[in-house]
Every structure is written in C-alpha cells, then in structure tokens.
Amino acid sequence: MSSNSSKLIAELDARIAELDAQSLRRRLRVSESPCAPHVQVDGRPMLAFCSNDYLGLAAHPRIIAALQEGAALYGAGSGASHLISGHSRAHALLEERLAAFMAPQIEQARALYFSTGYMANLAILGAFGGTDVDLFSEELNHASLIDGARLSRAQVKVYAHGDVGQLATLLSESKASKKLVVTDSVFSMDGDLAPLQALLALCERHDAWLVVDDAHGFGVLGAHGRGVLEHLDLRSPNLIYMGTLGKAAGVSGAFVAAHASAIEWMVQRARPYIYTTASPPAIAHALQTSLDIIEGPEGMARRAQLQTLIAHWRESMRPQQWQVIASDTAIQPVVIGDNAKAMKVAAALYEQGLWVPAIRPPTVPAGTARLRVTLSAAHEKADVAKLIGAILELERTYA
Question: How do residues 338-387 score in pLDDT, each as one tens digit?
Fold first, then answer.
C-alpha cells in the first residue's frame, strides 16, 4: 500500500473513531427471516419495533404468491429504462391502478412508478425546479426532499416546522414566477402531521405547487388507505403526491400522483425516471395485490388494529422524565436526549430481545436522541405492553 493510500485510510479511520466517541456510529444487523414482528436477527429471536411494515403485508401469503406469479410472467428484470424498453405491461397496469385509486383526491390524476421513494422525490424536485423557481422547504423534511431541493437549482427557503405564518410571509415576499412548497405529511422522526389544509390553501392563493411526501401515510391513513389526502379530505390540481410502496404496501418502490399534465412533464424532464433501469415488473405485479388488500375489508381491519395499538401505547406509555412526542400515527418516538444514553437504552432493550433503534443527530436535532418505536398491525397488544414495561423499567435505571 502506498504512503498516500495509507494516509487516506488513516484519515477515514480517524473520522470513524470520532463518530464512535460521539455515539454516532451506525451499524448493520442481519435479519435472517421475513419482515415481521417476531424475527431472527444475527442468530437470535427478536421482537421488532423498527420496520415500516405498518399493515404487516411484507410477508403476506397473497403478495408472495403474486410476486412469484409476476416473475413467471415477466422474468427477473426489466432490462432497460422505462423510456427505452423496460416499461412492461405490469408497470402500466400498476400506474393505471394507482391513478384510479388516487383520483378522488387529485383532479385528472395520473401516476408514475419509481424504484424508490428517494428517487421519486429527487425526480419531482428536479423536474419542477429551476433557476426561476422559489422552493419552500419544511424544516423537518426527509433527507430525500432536502437532497432534491439542493439538486433542483431553485432558490431554497426553509420555513420552521409547522409554521404556516412564516410560510405565508415567505410566499407573499417571493418574486419568483414559479413556486413550490415541499413537505412531509407524517414526519418520520416525530410522527406528527403537517398542517396540510392550511398549506394547500396558501398554495392555491399563491398559485404554487404543493409537494406532499406521504411515505408514512399511504395505506395507513384514510378510510380506504389513500393516505393523508383522504384523511384530511384534500383535493386540488395544485397537489403533487408521493406515496411509497415499500412501507404499508409491503413490497417496494414508490409512485407520484398528480394532474396528468404534471406527470407528463415528469416523463419528459425527471432525470431519475429517464436515466435508470425500470424496477422488475414482478414487483409491479405484486403491488396490484397489495392494493387489493389495502382498499378491501382486510386493509380496513388492519388499519383498525393498528389504531387500537396506537391508542394502547398512548394510554400506557407515560415516562416520568423522558418525553413521548404526541403522535396519532404508527411512529411513536421516546426522546431521551443524550446520544450515549439513547444507545445504552437501545442496547439494553436489544439484550431483552426487543429491537428498537436509537436515532441520533444528524437525523434528529442535537440533544434529542430518541428511541423510534414503530407499530404494525401485525403486532399484538401483548407485544406493545411488553415494550412499554421494558422502557419504563429502563427509565428508572438510566434517567
């Protein structure tokens, strides 16, 4: 190894050691079983509260069978980007189904399927950004939206979390010919909802697009699982909606739903759509079954079960010193504060067979390290009670 190479590696090792010293180093664990509440991780049984499989569909027998059927029908891969030869009948049928599913909330709806939600957000902001655009970004937006804003070439203005008044002022002061307001719907580290009714009213008043990342709402919120737009009874041609399909839908990918003209513009200008190989058609085929479940009686029952578990958590999880953030969603954070302490608590839970991640900066603000508990319809009430008891006992030890 050359001296220059040794210097480069040594520098990286020193920076990694700094992460260790600040209790900020991440690590991979290997799950050896299908996604479910009860899993085998690194060779030991665990009760998991860390997946985004909110409806418990990731290992659903009907979806597994549909994925197998899709592979038999369409093969293992797509072979090309959508605009070359990779757009299969499975992709087209899924997009038609998603557009029809979201039509009650979006005027003249059309949908576009992406390999991941991250790519979908980059695509939206890249296609609708530009040097003549002012982009107004929520302070606690997901990293994909932050990165998309950086790549959009727009003038980015960040408004404080949930601060409709500040956003109104920024919109009023903007001289840009095009305006784009960008927000999560359910904030992934806090579990609270954006004030979307007020945001949409502002966007309609200022002739701006409202981009809603509903990664943690699609399939979970709304009577039929149409997400936050149905939950809040929102409908507008100003909406650009992103929903993920690897969380509540249990498979993989994401979609953007918007007015047909907006989607056509993305087909022409969204680089993450144009310049990447289309996802395997078998996945799109399996997602049709996911949608069958989400909008059918079983989906309604699973959403009801999830709400029952959320209510039980909120009634019973009452720590004395740690903070439980108010959330009506499947995301239920417990703020501990100190990075090292949060890591110790997560490690102690893990030793008890309870898998809950400790979230630290830069994902959350400094001084707000937390346990991020995520509930699933596949959990039982006894599972949630076990976790609550363990956390409250550890608070007495570590608080």
Answer: 999 999 999 999 999 999 999 999 999 999 999 999 999 999 999 999 99
252: left (phi over 0), alpha (psi -120 to 50) or beta: beta
Active site residues: 188, 216, 247
* CA-to-CA separations, 244 to 2, 54, 255, 275, 287, in angstroms, rounded: 46, 12, 6, 20, 11
User: What's the average model confidence in pLDDT over 257-269?
Assistant: 98
Secondary structure E strands in the chain: 38-41, 44-48, 109-114, 133-138, 155-159, 178-184, 209-213, 239-244, 254-259, 323-324, 331-337, 354-355, 358-359, 369-374
Report whether CATH 3.40.50.300 matches the domain 26-55+297-398.
no
The encoded tokens of residue 174 equal 């903007």
Let me know the angle formed at the C-alpha of 274 by 257 and 138, rounded to the nearest 5 degrees.
50
Q: Given its phi and psi angles, is residue 204 left (phi above 0), alpha (psi -120 to 50 degrees) or beta?
A: alpha
Question: 61-295: what CATH class?
Answer: alpha beta
Buried/exposed code over 185-210 (b: 16+ C-beta within 10 A; e: otherwise): bbbbbbbbbbbbeebbebbeebebbb
pTM: 0.94
127-147 pLDDT per residue, tens: 999 999 999 999 999 999 999
Q: What is the pLDDT of residue 1?
A: 53
Tens digits of residue pLDDT in 26-66? 888 889 999 999 999 999 999 999 999 999 999 999 999 99
Q: Are 254 and 242 in contact (CB under 8 A)?
A: yes
The domain locations on the chain are: 26-55+297-398, 61-295
The C-alpha atoms of residue 225 and residue 240 are separated, in whole angstroms, by 18
Q: Find all residues with CB under 8 Å of 244, minimum gap 6, and list them.
A: 117, 120, 214, 215, 218, 253, 254
Per-residue pLDDT reduced to its tens digit, 177-186: 999 999 999 9
Domains 26-55+297-398 and 61-295 share a fold: no
